Every structure is written in C-alpha cells, then in structure tokens.
Sequence to fold (179 residues):
Amino acid sequence: MSRIGKLPIEIPKGVKISFADSLISVQGPNGSLKRQIMSLVSLDISETAIVVARSDDSTPARAAHGLTRTLINNMVVGVTKGFQRDLEINGVGYRAEVKGKELVLALGYSHPINFAIPDGISVDVDKMTKLSVKGFDKELVGQTAAKIRSFRSPEPYKGKGIKYADETILRKAGKTGKK
Fold:
C-alpha cells in the first residue's frame, strides 16, 4: 500500500468538492480547480475527508494511487491557502517591475523582456530584485516561476541571473592568470 496514497485528505471548512464522470472539482475561497482522475483509482468522499483507493495492485494503479492523492491534496490546499514561489535576481543592472498584467525584466540583453502574467497568477516585486509568484494552482505557479527563471538562468562563475530563493548555485573557479 502506498504510504502517501492511503492518507486521507482533510476537507477544510468552506471547500466544496464534487466528483462526477472522473472529473473532480474543488471550490474554495481562492478559486476553483478541476482535474481529470484516472480510472485506475476511486474516490470515497465524505463530509470531512477524501480517501483515494486503487482498483488493483498493478504497477500503473500503484503509481497512480499516490499521485492522485497528492494532486487532489494540492487542489484543496491551493483553494484555501494558495502557493508561492520566490525568485531572486542577481546582477548589475538586472531588475524587474510589474506594469499592469505584464512583468518587465531588464536582464542585460539589448531589449527589455515583457512577460504576460497568466490568469490566476499574481507577481509581486520587492526592491526590483525579489519576485514572488503567487496563485492557487500549484502547477501553474511552478510553471510560471520556471518560465521567468529561464529568461536568464544563473551562471556558475558569478551567479548572475534569476534563481529560486532556496536554490544554491554551485560556483566554479575562474581562469587563473599566466605566471
């Protein structure tokens, strides 16, 4: 039995869950999310908890068991608390600012980068070098943060670029001069 899959998902107050035709819908104070559920697992929804069970012990069903439970738990947490991913910009002249629904990045290129912020995501900029990507869909928050980071990934010599706040950059030694 999957150690993650067998754990029940607690349903907080103010969250409505509906399940029909292998489509689960979670509504809460922050928004609503929908996801298609695989036919290898079944859901038992009560007033206070959701229990995910698998149909058999085949390898695909065992793999889908823990995954489905985690995806549903992320939906419940997202519509109640939300998710946040923090980024840091390092480099001389590198900065960011939000203009309307666009994130404008100056990252050492000859032109500024205009990134359209997706619906359901908010980006906060602090001191022009610290970004905070927030939203209620964990997948979309992570994808947006990864896209912003990909505009200028951190390089290993000076550490210039955009990195996650909890990321450590392995630094390389530069060239040594001739003697």
